[in-house]
Amino acid sequence: MAQLGGQPILIMKEGTERTRGKDAMENNITAAKVIAEAVRTSLGPRGMDKMLVDQFGDVVITNDGATILKEIDVQHPAAKMMVEVAKTQDTEVGDGTTTSVILAGELLKRAEKLLQQKIHPTVITEGFRKAAEKSVEILDKMSIKSGIEDNDGLKNSAMTCMSSKIVSESKEMLAEICIDAIKAIAVKDENGKWDADIEKVQIQKKEGESIDETSLIKGIILDKEVVSPGMPKLIKDAKILLLQSALEIEKTEFDAKLQITSPDQIQQFLDEEERMLRTMVEKIVNSGANVVVCQKGIDDMAQHFLTKANVMAVRRVKKSDLEKLSKATGGMIFTNLDDVTEDKLGYAGLVEERKIMNDSWIFIEECKDPKSVVILIRGGTDLIIDEVERAIHDALCVVRDVVEDQKVVGGGGAPEIETAIQLRKFAQTLGGREQLAVEVFADTLDIIPKTLAENAGLDQIEVLMKLRASHQAGNKFAGHDLETGDVIDNMMSVGVVEPTIVKVQAIKSSTEAASMILRIDDVIAGAKSAGPPGMPPGGMPPGMGGMGGPGMGGMGMPPDMY
Predict the structure, then answer these.
(1) Selected catalytic residue, list 62, 67, 88, 97
(2) Pairing between strand 234-243 and 333-334?
(3) CA-to-CA distance for 458 and 451, rounded, in angstroms?
(4) Which CATH number fits domain 17-145+410-518: 3.90.190.20, 1.10.560.10, 3.40.50.300, 1.10.10.10?
(5) Residue 527 has pLDDT above 70, yes or no
(6) Which of 62, 98, 329, 511 is catalytic?
(7) 17 phi/psi in degrees, rounded to 5
(8) For this structure, is 359 an active site residue?
(9) Which of 32, 42, 98, 229 would be a feasible disulfide site paired with 47, CB 3.0-4.6 Å?
């Protein structure tokens, strides 16, 4: 609103809220800090889990940063940006979500002190940008080469990733499963770089047994049953026909009338249908196929003929599953039975229908060179299985990161301490106020080892001093053992390893989010929608009473019905 000669001029819609300058900044920074605090206690092997209950009473128990922030319904716009940081980290590298959110929150917390010293936000963000670039450079230099051949590096990375999860007791076995899965689906491109698409690793979950019964299947699981009870339930050395069209007589697409003058004509009609279906099945049998996986329906008569020919058939399989089967078995997907030849059929060592709990699933295993695999997760309850799935997803991503990026660093807060020490030296080379921002960035990185120590019940300051002393002595991967509180000069020697790209992405995404929040000095929130004409701003008129209030009575229902 502005004043002109005593006359108020309305610029914005009535009810619009506006926060400016220092208040807007403080408000945004506080919201971001609250989000960072919410996930901070879940960092590291001694981190705790969160139980999240939604409005329908559904429960999620997890310590995965991205999942926590996705499940809690965040309203504040600055806090939503912190949620985006975790989402980006999860999508890009699959791990380090909690780290990235904690770093963004700490950057803003320390930037607030610079703002109080009258340092302009643009100077701070420019200092942060330089510090982030230098940090990436430092991490790159201190990295150790790894890759698909380095089995120890892959295994230690996966186990480090899972050590903070509910599955930490079984982490070695699960790490082996994740490595085998990624190795199966990894392909080398023409430039000699490895590419591992984790979409090709299907995850199936079934409660029952224990986490230790989780297994890797070199093939695929179909959530289906064999179409006819008379068909074989187990076939070895299976030749699999992947069919996209239906094994049925196609109906005409236009209205047709048949004039039948004698019962013989009906019989001829039925005989012809039977002959057509018999011909279809003969083509399948002649091709050498003994398993048919069909995307559409299979006629009852065709099922009968397939059963007589001792062929196993599955129908109404999803297109995506058919494509995965094609990758796993090496078979071609056919649309016309006339094109089927034996050399284009898929191969699997074993196709079997098995009962798991109360459901029958078809396992297609022992495929030659499968480019699509399945991890079958077992566990005591649905909540445990869901958390195991999140842990396996993170571990798969970490193994993929090492295979593709081929660089690792020691974990346990070591890269952050080393980067912070070198950043402080770099800050000395800068002039002016940017130097302060770079020093603040270095102090921010210390929050990771401090939080790890705090969550383990150790003294933060004491641990930090010991770590700095070890790093100053030249141990670039010095970290602390959370069991004893002692400093270990090389975290890699005890198998605590993380992919470099996870650390790099955490620094990049947290810096960008913090910089964006710092540059906001004016928040203009539009007025809430007033709803249709004649309706009060709060929503429904009083007489309606919401769904199930007294206003429902006009719908012809007695009060005790709703």
Answers:
(1) 97
(2) parallel
(3) 10
(4) 1.10.560.10
(5) no
(6) 98
(7) -100, 140
(8) no
(9) 42
Q: Is 59 strand, coil or helix?
A: strand
Structure tokens given for 203? 């995850």
Please state, in angstroms and rounded to a whole number, the distance separating the CA atoms of residues 314 and 304. 13
Per residue in 149-162, pLDDT tens?
878 888 888 888 88
3-state helix, strand, coil in the chain (%, to 5): 50, 20, 30
The residue among 411, 414, 503, 422 whose CA lies nearest residue 463 is 414
- Specify the DSSP element, H or E, that contains 434: helix 434-445
Token pair of 459 as six digits: 């003294």
pLDDT band for 557, please (50, 70, 90 cuts): very low
Which position has the token pair 């912190």?
82
Annotated catalytic residue within 62, 64, 90, 419: 64
**64 annotated active-site:** yes
- CB count within 10 Å of CB 397 equals 25
Q: Are 16 and 63 in contact (CB under 8 A)?
A: no
Q: In sequence order, which ranges of 117-214 are alpha helices (DSSP H)? A: 121-142, 151-162, 171-185
Out of 95, 150, 394, 405, the active site residue is 394
Rounded Cα distance between 504 and 131, Å, is 12
Instruction: Report residue 156 as tokens.
Output: 């230690």
Cα 102 from Cα 93, distance rounded (Å): 17
Coil vs helix vs strand at 193: coil
Asked if 49 is an active-site residue, the reply is no
Domain 151-218+379-405 CATH class label? alpha beta
Q: Render pLDDT for 85-125 as a digit per residue (tens, 0 to 9).
A: 888 888 888 888 888 999 999 999 888 888 888 888 888 88
In the chain, ranges of CATH 1.10.560.10 domains: 17-145+410-518
What separation, in Å, do the N-terminal and C-terminal C-alpha atoms of the chain show? Answer: 48
459 given a catalytic annotation: no
Q: How far is CA 101 from CA 248, 353, 392, 424, 536, in A?
A: 55, 45, 21, 23, 40
The structural architecture, per CATH, of the domain 221-369 is 3-Layer(bba) Sandwich (3.50)
Residue 142 CA to residue 179 CA, distance in Å, equals 25
**Residue at 92: amino acid letter:** E
Residue intervals in the chain for CATH 3.30.260.10: 151-218+379-405
